[in-house]
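Subject: Predicted fold for Dehydrogenase, 348 residues

User T.R. writes:
Posting the sequence so we have a shared reference for the thread.
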Amino acid sequence: MSVVSGQGRTLRAGLIGLGAMGRNHARVLSNLDGVELVGVADPAGDTTGTVRAPVVATLAELIAMKLDYAVVACPTALHEQVGLELAANGVSALIEKPLAQSVETAQRLVAAFESAGLVAGVGHIERYNPALQNLRSRLEAGELGEVFQVVTRRQGPFPHRIADVGVVMDLATHDIDLTSWVTGREYVSVSARTVSRSGRLHEDMVAAVGQLTDGTMVNHLVNWLSPLKERSTVITGDRGCFIADTLTADLTFYANGAIDTEWEALRAFRGVAEGDMVRFAIPKREPLLVEHERFRDAVEGKDSDIVTLRQGLRTVQVAAAVLQSATDGSTVSVAPGDRTVGDLSTTG
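User M.O. replies:
I've generated the C-alpha cells; pasting them so everyone works from the same file.
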C-alpha cells in the first residue's frame, strides 16, 4: 500500500504498455511512496493481468479511473495518439523515450500538454544513473577544467522488443540527451553514417560526430550488432578524463599528471602525462526509481528535476539531424532552441 503523499493524498497513476519496459514501470509504481497504480492498458491487447493492478482493454477505460498521471510505455509510434488523448483529458504524463518518431509529432505533444497546463516529462533514464549524476556535479564544480571531448559507446545485441524505430531514435537518443545534460551545452552540428546489417527496415548501427555550443567535440558509436554490451561515457578535459560506466554505475577519474621536464624542446608542448586514477564510491540507487520519484514530486507541485517535453523535443531534433546527415552525407547544422525540422540546414 502506498504512503500518503506530501499533499495529503495518494496520487492515482495509470500505465500504458506492458512490454519489457512497461513491466519495469509497473514494478516501481506498485511500490512508490505516495502513489497508487490503479490501472493498466496495453495497446497490444495484453490483458493477462500479471501486474499488481487491474488491466483494462482501452485507454478510455483507464482515463475513466480518474488518473492524476499516466506513464506511457507503449511503442514510440503510438506516443502521439496516446499522449494527445491524455492531454485532452487533463492527465499529466511521463512518456518513455524517445518522445516521438519525428520532430513534428514531438512538437504536437509539447503543444498539447503545455496548452493544457499539465506536468509532462520524458523517460530519459540515463540522467538518473548514479555515475552520470555524480559526473555532472563534478563538471559543474570545475573538477575537469575546460571540457574538450565527449565520447559515448552504447552497443549490444539486438533487442527484439523494438520494431518501430532504428538504433538512432531508440539508443542514440540516450547519448544525445545525456551529453547535453551533463555538459550543459546544446548541439550545433552533427555528421553521421548508418548501416543496416540485420535485414530490418531501420538502421542498426550509427557512428556520429558532433559539436556543442562551446566547441566541445562529441563522438557517438551506437549499435545493436555486438555480442559485447557496453555503456560508456568518456569526457576528456584540461585536467584529465572521467569514465562513467552506466551498466555498473561506476565513475572513474584519470588525472592529467604534471611532470617537469628539462628538455627545452618539450617545454612549449602542451601535452599530458599519466597521473592518479580514482574510482569514486557513490550511492547506487535504481535510476528508474529515482526517475519516478522526481516525476511524482513534479506532479505534486514540488520543485523537481525532470526531463521536460521541450528537452525531449530537442533530443528528437538532434536525432533527426543525425538521420538526415546519414541519408545525404552532409554535416547538418542544428538551430538553437526548439525550432522546427525546417531549421535543420545542410552545410558542406
